[in-house]
Amino acid sequence: QVQLVESGGGLVQPGGSLRLSCAASGFTFSTYRMSWYRQCPGKERELVAYITSTGGSTFYAASVKGRFTISRENTKKTLYLQMNNLKPEDTAVYYCKANLFDYTYWGQGTQVTVSS
Fold this sequence. Notes:
Strand content: over 45%
Distance between the termini: 40 Å
Structural class: mainly beta
Number of helices: 0
Helix content: under 10%
Order of helices and strands: EEEEEEEEEEE
Radius of gyration: 13 Å
């Protein structure tokens, strides 16, 4: 059974940091491109960052570039998102996604709230 379980969300003050994790099981993690998305209430889900299967290439949305870092450990089947200098507009539910050709899997999401 495929599972993606996000963790690490919470409440943080502006300028603070959080590290999200996404633990994968039930599929060959090392062959999938992995992504982080986020969704604010009333808005569409948006791509935050992705990383290729080997970790050799990454992409970031302009809104997070220079503040967020996506990484993965294939031996641990885990995806990470290090978020620094958080802003109130980063408040959202963060989801991880696994994709390989026609196969796409989503996690259940973890809430990140940036507020003083």
